[in-house]
Amino acid sequence: MECGADYDALVAQVAERRAPAPEAAAHQHACPHCRAAIAELEELWAPVSTLTGEQVRAPAGLVESIMARVRELPRHSSYAVLAGDGPGATRIAGRVVGAIARRAALGVPGVTAAVGGGPRRRDVMSGEGTAVAVSGSHVVVEVALVVAFGAPVLDVAAQVRAAVIEHVSRLTDLTATAVDVSVVDLEERPDGR
Amino acid sequence: MSSESRSPWEGELVARARDGDHDAFGELVRTHADRAYAIAMRMTGRPADAQDVVQESMIAAWQHLDAFTGGSSFNTWLTRIVINRCHNHRRGARFEAPLDAVDEGHDGLRLGGEWAGGPESAVIARARLAAVQEAILGLPFDQRAALVLHTVAGCSHAESAKTLGISEAAARVRVHRARAALVERLRDWR
Protein backbone atom coordinates (compact mmCIF):
# COMPACT_ATOMS: atom_id res chain seq x y z
CA MET A 1 0.00 0.00 0.00
CA GLU A 2 1.03 3.60 -0.49
CA CYS A 3 1.64 4.08 3.22
CA GLY A 4 3.86 1.01 3.37
CA ALA A 5 1.39 -1.11 5.30
CA ASP A 6 1.00 -4.79 4.34
CA TYR A 7 -2.39 -5.27 2.66
CA ASP A 8 -2.42 -9.02 3.37
CA ALA A 9 -1.95 -8.26 7.05
CA LEU A 10 -5.00 -6.01 6.93
CA VAL A 11 -6.98 -8.80 5.24
CA ALA A 12 -5.95 -11.23 7.99
CA GLN A 13 -6.72 -8.65 10.66
CA VAL A 14 -10.26 -8.12 9.34
CA ALA A 15 -10.93 -11.79 8.56
CA GLU A 16 -9.83 -12.96 11.99
CA ARG A 17 -11.29 -9.94 13.81
CA ARG A 18 -7.91 -9.55 15.38
CA ALA A 19 -6.71 -6.38 17.11
CA PRO A 20 -3.54 -5.06 15.45
CA ALA A 21 -0.31 -4.70 17.39
CA PRO A 22 -0.11 -1.35 19.24
CA GLU A 23 2.32 0.16 16.71
CA ALA A 24 0.19 -0.88 13.73
CA ALA A 25 -2.94 0.29 15.51
CA ALA A 26 -1.47 3.76 15.98
CA HIS A 27 -0.52 3.90 12.29
CA GLN A 28 -3.93 2.65 11.14
CA HIS A 29 -5.69 5.20 13.30
CA ALA A 30 -3.82 8.04 11.64
CA CYS A 31 -3.52 6.68 8.08
CA PRO A 32 -6.37 7.43 5.64
CA HIS A 33 -5.20 4.66 3.25
CA CYS A 34 -5.40 2.04 5.98
CA ARG A 35 -8.72 3.32 7.30
CA ALA A 36 -10.26 3.23 3.83
CA ALA A 37 -8.88 -0.23 3.13
CA ILE A 38 -10.10 -1.60 6.47
CA ALA A 39 -13.56 -0.12 5.95
CA GLU A 40 -13.81 -1.73 2.52
CA LEU A 41 -12.48 -5.08 3.75
CA GLU A 42 -14.91 -5.12 6.66
CA GLU A 43 -17.79 -4.61 4.26
CA LEU A 44 -16.51 -7.24 1.82
CA TRP A 45 -15.79 -9.79 4.52
CA ALA A 46 -19.03 -9.41 6.51
CA PRO A 47 -21.05 -11.90 4.41
CA VAL A 48 -18.12 -14.35 4.51
CA SER A 49 -18.19 -14.24 8.30
CA THR A 50 -21.95 -14.70 8.26
CA LEU A 51 -21.77 -17.69 5.94
CA THR A 52 -18.86 -19.44 7.60
CA GLY A 53 -20.28 -18.71 11.05
CA GLU A 54 -23.66 -20.24 10.23
CA GLN A 55 -24.54 -23.25 12.34
CA VAL A 56 -24.79 -26.00 9.76
CA ARG A 57 -26.22 -29.21 11.12
CA ALA A 58 -26.45 -32.57 9.43
CA PRO A 59 -30.00 -33.20 8.18
CA ALA A 60 -32.25 -35.14 10.53
CA GLY A 61 -32.00 -38.83 9.81
CA LEU A 62 -28.61 -38.71 8.10
CA VAL A 63 -26.93 -40.57 10.94
CA GLU A 64 -29.66 -43.23 10.96
CA SER A 65 -29.41 -43.55 7.19
CA ILE A 66 -25.65 -44.00 7.37
CA MET A 67 -25.95 -46.58 10.12
CA ALA A 68 -28.65 -48.45 8.21
CA ARG A 69 -26.21 -48.66 5.32
CA VAL A 70 -23.28 -49.65 7.55
CA ARG A 71 -25.30 -52.44 9.15
CA GLU A 72 -26.23 -53.80 5.74
CA LEU A 73 -22.79 -53.61 4.21
CA PRO A 74 -21.77 -57.27 4.40
CA ARG A 75 -24.93 -58.35 2.64
CA HIS A 76 -24.15 -56.46 -0.54
CA SER A 77 -21.95 -57.51 -3.39
CA SER A 78 -19.81 -54.65 -4.48
CA TYR A 79 -20.29 -54.73 -8.25
CA ALA A 80 -22.95 -55.25 -10.85
CA VAL A 81 -21.97 -56.22 -14.38
CA LEU A 82 -23.33 -54.40 -17.40
CA ALA A 83 -24.12 -56.19 -20.60
CA GLY A 84 -21.97 -54.90 -23.43
CA ASP A 85 -20.58 -55.69 -26.81
CA GLY A 86 -17.10 -56.24 -25.43
CA PRO A 87 -14.24 -56.84 -25.62
CA GLY A 88 -13.89 -56.57 -21.87
CA ALA A 89 -16.46 -56.30 -19.10
CA THR A 90 -18.07 -53.21 -17.64
CA ARG A 91 -18.56 -53.36 -13.90
CA ILE A 92 -20.39 -50.77 -11.89
CA ALA A 93 -19.79 -50.37 -8.18
CA GLY A 94 -22.77 -50.86 -5.92
CA ARG A 95 -22.20 -47.52 -4.31
CA VAL A 96 -22.63 -45.87 -7.71
CA VAL A 97 -26.09 -47.37 -8.05
CA GLY A 98 -26.68 -46.30 -4.46
CA ALA A 99 -25.67 -42.73 -5.26
CA ILE A 100 -27.95 -42.66 -8.29
CA ALA A 101 -30.82 -43.99 -6.18
CA ARG A 102 -30.19 -41.38 -3.48
CA ARG A 103 -30.19 -38.57 -5.98
CA ALA A 104 -33.31 -39.86 -7.66
CA ALA A 105 -35.02 -40.10 -4.27
CA LEU A 106 -33.93 -36.60 -3.27
CA GLY A 107 -35.60 -35.25 -6.39
CA VAL A 108 -39.00 -36.43 -5.13
CA PRO A 109 -40.93 -33.68 -3.30
CA GLY A 110 -41.23 -34.46 0.40
CA VAL A 111 -37.94 -36.35 0.64
CA THR A 112 -35.42 -34.52 2.80
CA ALA A 113 -32.65 -37.14 3.06
CA ALA A 114 -31.93 -40.45 1.43
CA VAL A 115 -29.37 -43.21 1.44
CA GLY A 116 -29.23 -45.91 -1.19
CA GLY A 117 -28.10 -49.45 -0.57
CA GLY A 118 -25.95 -51.30 -3.03
CA PRO A 119 -27.27 -53.70 -5.60
CA ARG A 120 -27.72 -57.41 -5.20
CA ARG A 121 -27.48 -59.04 -8.56
CA ARG A 122 -30.14 -61.58 -9.37
CA ASP A 123 -30.31 -64.12 -12.11
CA VAL A 124 -33.60 -63.30 -13.71
CA MET A 125 -33.71 -66.72 -15.39
CA SER A 126 -33.77 -68.65 -12.13
CA GLY A 127 -35.11 -65.92 -9.92
CA GLU A 128 -32.44 -66.68 -7.36
CA GLY A 129 -29.40 -64.84 -6.20
CA THR A 130 -26.42 -65.87 -8.27
CA ALA A 131 -22.86 -64.88 -8.87
CA VAL A 132 -23.18 -65.47 -12.60
CA ALA A 133 -23.87 -62.48 -14.79
CA VAL A 134 -26.72 -62.99 -17.21
CA SER A 135 -27.46 -61.18 -20.43
CA GLY A 136 -29.32 -58.45 -18.65
CA SER A 137 -28.22 -57.18 -15.25
CA HIS A 138 -30.74 -56.78 -12.50
CA VAL A 139 -30.38 -55.03 -9.21
CA VAL A 140 -32.37 -54.75 -6.05
CA VAL A 141 -32.03 -51.30 -4.54
CA GLU A 142 -32.74 -50.38 -0.97
CA VAL A 143 -33.34 -46.75 -0.17
CA ALA A 144 -33.74 -45.32 3.32
CA LEU A 145 -35.59 -42.02 3.41
CA VAL A 146 -36.35 -39.13 5.68
CA VAL A 147 -39.71 -37.65 4.66
CA ALA A 148 -41.00 -34.17 5.43
CA PHE A 149 -43.68 -34.23 8.10
CA GLY A 150 -47.06 -33.85 6.43
CA ALA A 151 -46.08 -35.43 3.13
CA PRO A 152 -48.12 -38.53 2.30
CA VAL A 153 -45.63 -41.29 3.03
CA LEU A 154 -47.09 -43.95 0.74
CA ASP A 155 -47.28 -41.54 -2.21
CA VAL A 156 -43.73 -40.40 -1.58
CA ALA A 157 -42.52 -44.00 -1.42
CA ALA A 158 -44.28 -44.82 -4.68
CA GLN A 159 -42.77 -41.79 -6.39
CA VAL A 160 -39.33 -42.67 -5.05
CA ARG A 161 -39.66 -46.21 -6.36
CA ALA A 162 -40.60 -44.95 -9.81
CA ALA A 163 -37.85 -42.32 -9.82
CA VAL A 164 -35.17 -44.82 -8.75
CA ILE A 165 -36.18 -47.35 -11.39
CA GLU A 166 -36.20 -44.65 -14.07
CA HIS A 167 -32.83 -43.14 -13.07
CA VAL A 168 -31.05 -46.48 -12.62
CA SER A 169 -32.33 -47.64 -15.99
CA ARG A 170 -31.43 -44.44 -17.79
CA LEU A 171 -27.98 -43.91 -16.26
CA THR A 172 -26.65 -47.45 -15.94
CA ASP A 173 -28.80 -49.67 -18.15
CA LEU A 174 -29.28 -51.91 -15.12
CA THR A 175 -32.81 -53.03 -14.36
CA ALA A 176 -34.01 -52.42 -10.85
CA THR A 177 -36.24 -55.44 -10.28
CA ALA A 178 -37.21 -54.20 -6.83
CA VAL A 179 -36.81 -51.01 -4.87
CA ASP A 180 -37.23 -51.49 -1.13
CA VAL A 181 -38.10 -48.19 0.46
CA SER A 182 -37.61 -47.67 4.20
CA VAL A 183 -38.90 -44.48 5.74
CA VAL A 184 -36.57 -44.13 8.72
CA ASP A 185 -37.57 -40.71 10.02
CA LEU A 186 -39.81 -37.69 9.61
CA GLU A 187 -38.37 -34.23 9.20
CA GLU A 188 -40.25 -31.92 11.50
CA ARG A 189 -38.44 -28.66 11.07
CA PRO A 190 -40.84 -25.87 10.14
CA ASP A 191 -38.64 -24.57 7.33
CA GLY A 192 -39.32 -27.76 5.43
CA ARG A 193 -35.74 -29.00 5.20
CA MET B 1 -14.07 -26.33 18.15
CA SER B 2 -10.71 -27.97 18.03
CA SER B 3 -10.17 -30.92 15.74
CA GLU B 4 -7.81 -32.38 18.32
CA SER B 5 -10.33 -32.53 21.13
CA ARG B 6 -10.73 -36.12 22.19
CA SER B 7 -13.29 -37.46 24.52
CA PRO B 8 -11.75 -39.87 27.02
CA TRP B 9 -13.87 -42.73 25.71
CA GLU B 10 -13.22 -42.09 22.03
CA GLY B 11 -10.36 -44.56 21.89
CA GLU B 12 -12.63 -47.14 23.49
CA LEU B 13 -15.36 -46.44 20.90
CA VAL B 14 -12.89 -46.73 18.04
CA ALA B 15 -11.55 -50.01 19.41
CA ARG B 16 -15.05 -51.44 19.75
CA ALA B 17 -16.06 -50.19 16.29
CA ARG B 18 -12.97 -51.81 14.84
CA ASP B 19 -14.17 -55.10 16.34
CA GLY B 20 -17.41 -54.69 14.42
CA ASP B 21 -19.54 -53.02 17.10
CA HIS B 22 -22.18 -51.06 15.15
CA ASP B 23 -23.42 -49.16 18.20
CA ALA B 24 -19.94 -47.89 19.00
CA PHE B 25 -19.47 -46.73 15.43
CA GLY B 26 -22.93 -45.14 15.51
CA GLU B 27 -21.81 -43.11 18.50
CA LEU B 28 -18.77 -41.89 16.58
CA VAL B 29 -20.93 -41.01 13.57
CA ARG B 30 -23.37 -39.11 15.78
CA THR B 31 -20.57 -37.17 17.43
CA HIS B 32 -18.89 -36.12 14.21
CA ALA B 33 -21.76 -35.84 11.69
CA ASP B 34 -22.53 -32.14 12.13
CA ARG B 35 -18.94 -31.03 11.75
CA ALA B 36 -18.34 -33.33 8.78
CA TYR B 37 -21.53 -32.09 7.15
CA ALA B 38 -20.65 -28.42 7.74
CA ILE B 39 -17.26 -28.93 6.10
CA ALA B 40 -18.74 -30.87 3.17
CA MET B 41 -21.49 -28.28 2.74
CA ARG B 42 -19.03 -25.40 2.37
CA MET B 43 -16.69 -27.48 0.22
CA THR B 44 -19.38 -28.62 -2.23
CA GLY B 45 -22.00 -25.88 -1.85
CA ARG B 46 -24.93 -28.27 -2.18
CA PRO B 47 -26.76 -30.25 0.52
CA ALA B 48 -27.24 -33.26 -1.78
CA ASP B 49 -23.50 -33.39 -2.45
CA ALA B 50 -22.67 -32.78 1.20
CA GLN B 51 -24.93 -35.67 2.23
CA ASP B 52 -23.29 -37.93 -0.33
CA VAL B 53 -19.85 -36.93 0.87
CA VAL B 54 -20.65 -37.51 4.54
CA GLN B 55 -22.30 -40.86 3.81
CA GLU B 56 -19.41 -42.03 1.68
CA SER B 57 -16.87 -40.77 4.21
CA MET B 58 -18.50 -42.46 7.18
CA ILE B 59 -18.85 -45.71 5.27
CA ALA B 60 -15.22 -45.48 4.14
CA ALA B 61 -14.23 -44.81 7.75
CA TRP B 62 -16.13 -47.93 8.83
CA GLN B 63 -14.49 -50.03 6.15
CA HIS B 64 -10.99 -48.72 6.81
CA LEU B 65 -10.96 -48.40 10.58
CA ASP B 66 -8.04 -50.80 10.65
CA ALA B 67 -5.97 -48.13 8.93
CA PHE B 68 -6.66 -45.66 11.74
CA THR B 69 -3.63 -45.96 13.94
CA GLY B 70 -4.48 -43.38 16.55
CA GLY B 71 -1.57 -41.19 15.45
CA SER B 72 -4.06 -38.33 15.19
CA SER B 73 -7.49 -37.88 16.71
CA PHE B 74 -10.37 -39.73 15.06
CA ASN B 75 -11.74 -36.30 14.13
CA THR B 76 -8.61 -35.36 12.19
CA TRP B 77 -8.57 -38.73 10.46
CA LEU B 78 -12.25 -38.50 9.52
CA THR B 79 -11.89 -34.90 8.34
CA ARG B 80 -9.08 -35.99 6.03
CA ILE B 81 -11.42 -38.60 4.51
CA VAL B 82 -14.16 -35.98 4.12
CA ILE B 83 -11.81 -33.56 2.35
CA ASN B 84 -10.58 -36.33 0.04
CA ARG B 85 -14.16 -37.32 -0.75
CA CYS B 86 -15.01 -33.70 -1.55
CA HIS B 87 -12.13 -33.74 -4.01
CA ASN B 88 -13.25 -36.99 -5.65
CA HIS B 89 -16.87 -35.96 -5.58
CA ARG B 90 -16.16 -32.82 -7.55
CA ARG B 91 -14.14 -34.69 -10.11
CA GLY B 92 -16.67 -37.50 -10.34
CA ALA B 93 -19.60 -35.14 -10.70
CA ARG B 94 -18.57 -34.23 -14.23
CA PHE B 95 -19.32 -37.73 -15.44
CA GLU B 96 -22.79 -37.86 -14.00
CA ALA B 97 -25.91 -36.88 -15.82
CA PRO B 98 -27.29 -33.75 -14.19
CA LEU B 99 -30.25 -34.42 -11.95
CA ASP B 100 -31.54 -30.89 -11.81
CA ALA B 101 -34.47 -31.70 -9.60
CA VAL B 102 -32.10 -32.38 -6.73
CA ASP B 103 -31.16 -28.73 -6.55
CA GLU B 104 -34.57 -27.22 -6.32
CA GLY B 105 -35.03 -25.45 -3.05
CA HIS B 106 -31.92 -27.05 -1.64
CA ASP B 107 -29.25 -24.44 -1.94
CA GLY B 108 -28.50 -24.89 1.71
CA LEU B 109 -28.46 -21.25 2.62
CA ARG B 110 -30.75 -20.83 5.52
CA LEU B 111 -30.74 -17.57 7.29
CA GLY B 112 -31.34 -17.51 10.98
CA GLY B 113 -32.85 -14.63 12.86
CA GLU B 114 -34.89 -11.67 11.80
CA TRP B 115 -33.92 -9.23 9.11
CA ALA B 116 -34.84 -5.78 10.25
CA GLY B 117 -35.19 -4.48 6.71
CA GLY B 118 -37.99 -6.89 5.88
CA PRO B 119 -38.22 -9.46 3.11
CA GLU B 120 -36.33 -7.47 0.50
CA SER B 121 -33.19 -7.07 2.53
CA ALA B 122 -33.46 -10.74 3.51
CA VAL B 123 -33.46 -11.60 -0.18
CA ILE B 124 -30.45 -9.39 -0.78
CA ALA B 125 -28.63 -10.85 2.21
CA ARG B 126 -29.39 -14.34 0.93
CA ALA B 127 -28.07 -13.43 -2.50
CA ARG B 128 -24.86 -12.12 -0.93
CA LEU B 129 -24.37 -15.34 0.99
CA ALA B 130 -24.99 -17.33 -2.17
CA ALA B 131 -22.39 -15.18 -3.90
CA VAL B 132 -19.91 -15.89 -1.11
CA GLN B 133 -20.56 -19.63 -1.40
CA GLU B 134 -20.04 -19.38 -5.17
CA ALA B 135 -16.81 -17.47 -4.63
CA ILE B 136 -15.61 -20.15 -2.20
CA LEU B 137 -16.45 -22.83 -4.77
CA GLY B 138 -14.44 -20.88 -7.32
CA LEU B 139 -11.27 -21.18 -5.25
CA PRO B 140 -8.68 -23.80 -6.20
CA PHE B 141 -9.38 -26.96 -4.20
CA ASP B 142 -6.30 -26.73 -1.97
CA GLN B 143 -7.04 -23.14 -0.98
CA ARG B 144 -10.71 -23.91 -0.41
CA ALA B 145 -9.91 -26.85 1.85
CA ALA B 146 -7.48 -24.80 3.95
CA LEU B 147 -9.96 -21.91 4.22
CA VAL B 148 -12.93 -24.10 5.14
CA LEU B 149 -10.95 -26.00 7.78
CA HIS B 150 -9.71 -22.75 9.30
CA THR B 151 -12.87 -20.63 9.17
CA VAL B 152 -15.74 -23.15 9.24
CA ALA B 153 -14.24 -26.00 11.25
CA GLY B 154 -12.21 -23.68 13.47
CA CYS B 155 -8.95 -25.55 12.95
CA SER B 156 -5.70 -23.89 13.86
CA HIS B 157 -3.14 -23.78 11.05
CA ALA B 158 -1.32 -26.64 12.81
CA GLU B 159 -4.48 -28.76 12.88
CA SER B 160 -5.29 -27.97 9.23
CA ALA B 161 -1.75 -28.89 8.30
CA LYS B 162 -2.07 -32.26 10.03
CA THR B 163 -5.40 -32.93 8.34
CA LEU B 164 -4.17 -31.97 4.89
CA GLY B 165 -0.76 -33.60 5.26
CA ILE B 166 1.14 -30.37 4.59
CA SER B 167 3.36 -28.09 6.63
CA GLU B 168 1.91 -25.50 8.97
CA ALA B 169 3.51 -22.75 6.88
CA ALA B 170 1.85 -24.13 3.75
CA ALA B 171 -1.54 -24.22 5.49
CA ARG B 172 -1.09 -20.61 6.54
CA VAL B 173 -0.15 -19.54 3.01
CA ARG B 174 -3.15 -21.32 1.49
CA VAL B 175 -5.53 -19.54 3.85
CA HIS B 176 -3.90 -16.18 3.04
CA ARG B 177 -4.19 -16.81 -0.69
CA ALA B 178 -7.76 -17.99 -0.36
CA ARG B 179 -8.71 -14.84 1.52
CA ALA B 180 -6.99 -12.59 -0.99
CA ALA B 181 -8.74 -14.35 -3.88
CA LEU B 182 -12.10 -14.15 -2.11
CA VAL B 183 -11.70 -10.44 -1.49
CA GLU B 184 -10.95 -9.92 -5.18
CA ARG B 185 -13.95 -11.96 -6.30
CA LEU B 186 -16.32 -10.26 -3.89
CA ARG B 187 -15.07 -6.85 -4.95
CA ASP B 188 -15.76 -7.74 -8.59
CA TRP B 189 -19.20 -8.98 -7.69
CA ARG B 190 -20.14 -5.77 -5.91
What Rg of chain A do the Cα atoms give?
27 Å
Spatial separation of the terminal alpha carbons of chain B = 32 Å
Query: Helix-strand pattern of chain B, N to C?
Result: HHHHHHHH
Please state the CA-atom Rg of chain B, rounded to the nearest Å: 18 Å
Task: State the major sheet of chain B.
Answer: none
The helical percent of chain A reads: 40-55%
Question: If you had to describe this structure to a student in words, what would you say it looks like?
Answer:
- The complex is a heterodimer of chains A (193) and B (190).
- By secondary structure, chain A is α+β, with helices and mostly antiparallel strands.
- Chain A has 6 helices and 7 strands.
- Chain A has helices at 7-15, 22-30, 32-53, 62-72, 94-106, 153-172, and strands at 79-82, 90-93, 111-116, 122-123, 128-129, 138-148, 175-187.
- In chain A, the strands form 3 sheets. Chain A has a 3-stranded mixed sheet, with helices on both faces. A two-stranded antiparallel sheet of chain A has the order 1-2.
- In chain A, α1 packs parallel to α3 (32-53), α2 packs across α3 (32-53) and α5 (94-106) crosses α6.
- The longest helix of chain A is centred in the N-terminal third of the chain and has 22 residues, at 32-53.
- Chain B is mainly α and 190 residues long.
- In chain B, α2 crosses α4 (74-93) and α4 (74-93) crosses α7.
- Chain B is globular.
- Chain B starts with 9 loop residues before the first helix and ends with a helix.
- The relative contact order of chain B is 0.13.
- The model of chain B is unreliable at 92-108 and 110-115 (pLDDT under 50).
- At the A-B interface, α1, α3, α4, α5 and β3 of A face α2, α3, α5 and α8 of B.
